[in-house]
Amino acid sequence: MIRRRADRHFVKSDGSAPVDAHLRRRDYLTPDEVKRLLAAAKSGRHGTRDHLMLLLMYRHGLRVSELIALRRTDLDLASGQFWVQRLKRGLSTSQPLAGDELRALRRHLARRGDPLPWLFLSERGQPLARQAVNYLLTRIAARAGLGAVHPHMLRHSCGHALAHAGRDLRLIQDYLGHRDPRHTARYTRTAAVRFQDIWR
């Protein structure tokens, strides 16, 4: 049974998630909100690391599990390439690193005085845990005045930004590593660019 709540979202009668993704509340950040989040990340105790983490999550649509699994060997700074190992049977791809990403990576690695293979470490020199990333993002989002932000919102923000830029579904599908195009269609179906010239 489906009922409609006061917030005009379709939900199941047991209060669980909406039946279709396009009926949900906005679950991504706008480019301006991402800028605020990234600026707030720089101001923390580990600003260089935290800014880089959120930048890579957004630009490459990384899941938390993909982020914390990153190793130095996944990077080729000389060629500006980045191997994105997708999980959940996703399509792994080599993706280009933009100039600001390369600069952030070099700053981060220059501060590291250890030979450990993982790209992101905790204060104790261990790979970051999912809970640590969740906690850091919550703190950073609060500093940015954005309210509740969860890590997967950065992956959604990446998909929506690409769709709003007019990129086609197949390209976004491959970039995010989706096996099923239905997972990508949520971004292209709701993109404002589709309706840009609708009154002309």
Automatic annotation (TrEMBL):
<comment type="similarity">
    <text>Belongs to the 'phage' integrase family.</text>
</comment>
<keyword id="KW-0229">DNA integration</keyword>
<dbReference type="InterPro" id="IPR011010">
    <property type="entry name" value="DNA_brk_join_enz"/>
</dbReference>
<feature type="domain" description="Tyr recombinase">
    <location>
        <begin position="24"/>
        <end position="200"/>
    </location>
</feature>
<protein>
    <submittedName>
        <fullName>Tyrosine-type recombinase/integrase</fullName>
    </submittedName>
</protein>
<dbReference type="InterPro" id="IPR050090">
    <property type="entry name" value="Tyrosine_recombinase_XerCD"/>
</dbReference>
<keyword id="KW-1029">Fimbrium biogenesis</keyword>
<keyword id="KW-0804">Transcription</keyword>
<dbReference type="Pfam" id="PF00589">
    <property type="entry name" value="Phage_integrase"/>
</dbReference>
<dbReference type="InterPro" id="IPR002104">
    <property type="entry name" value="Integrase_catalytic"/>
</dbReference>
<keyword id="KW-0233">DNA recombination</keyword>
<keyword id="KW-0805">Transcription regulation</keyword>
<dbReference type="InterPro" id="IPR013762">
    <property type="entry name" value="Integrase-like_cat_sf"/>
</dbReference>
